[in-house]
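Backbone-to-sequence.
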């Protein structure tokens, strides 16, 4: 059984399958793809994932993309700790939280993070290097996203709305965790893995609105998830300061 995971830092989408594989006890080969040097747009990687996006899981020749479905695949394909609730209602709650993270929290967090961190890093590069990188991007959607980041084309009203959404999502997560120990109910699940990878850095990211006074249940849950051995092992794959919490 060959399992290869192509991933970037253990945060956001890249951290989801890393944690899932380790929680399940699956042996895999890690391939660290340097997004900040555009390795995801090189021919060798595009041969695996033509969209030039990470992560990508290759299991005995089967190629699985899209990080959240990838995590469900990992739970279904391999033995080990169950990462989905046993009951249908619990699985529905799990999927609802995963979708909320991917469709509401994730895009807003991405906009603020790319504006605050990735953009300034890119603007230290030469224009010639940036133009070569843009020319290698395989899809118009990603060209637009990278161009927006490089040019710092983030309207203040869009950034303000993203920050509002992040704070709103943090409040909603906190409210749920005030009722149940885990997001989908009584058991740890993929919902916790997927939301953790979005939310773990929020206390330092927006400390004025996400803190022990305003969102105590969220902070306690971040500490609880972050202390799991599998999560600590996943965080050890970090190669730079973009990891969600300290290793």
């Amino acid at each position: 059984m060959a399992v290869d995971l192509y991933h970037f830092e253990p945060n956001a989408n890249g951290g989801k399958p890393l944690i899932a594989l380790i929680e399940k006890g699956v042996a895999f080969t890690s391939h660290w793809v340097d997004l900040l040097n555009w390795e995801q747009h090189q021919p060798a990687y595009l041969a695996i994932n033509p969209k030039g996006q990470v992560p990508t899981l290759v299991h005995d020749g089967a190629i699985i993309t899209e990080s959240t479905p990838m995590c469900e695949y990992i739970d279904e394909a391999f033995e080990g700790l169950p990462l989905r609730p046993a009951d249908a209602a619990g699985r529905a709650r799990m999927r609802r939280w995963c979708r909320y993270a991917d469709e509401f929290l994730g895009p807003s967090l991405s906009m603020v993070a790319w504006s605050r961190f990735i953009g300034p890093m890119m603007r230290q590069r030469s224009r010639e290097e940036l133009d070569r990188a843009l020319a290698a991007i395989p899809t118009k959607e990603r060209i637009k996203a990278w161009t927006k980041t490089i040019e710092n084309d983030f309207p203040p009203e869009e950034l303000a709305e993203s920050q509002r959404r992040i704070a709103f999502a943090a409040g909603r997560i906190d409210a749920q965790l005030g009722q149940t120990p885990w997001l989908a109910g009584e058991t740890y699940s993929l919902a916790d893995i997927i939301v953790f990878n979005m939310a773990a850095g929020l206390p330092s990211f927006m400390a004025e609105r996400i803190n022990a006074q305003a969102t105590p249940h969220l902070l306690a849950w971040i500490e609880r998830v972050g202390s799991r051995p599998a999560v600590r092992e996943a965080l050890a794959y970090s190669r730079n300061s973009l990891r969600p919490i300290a290793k």
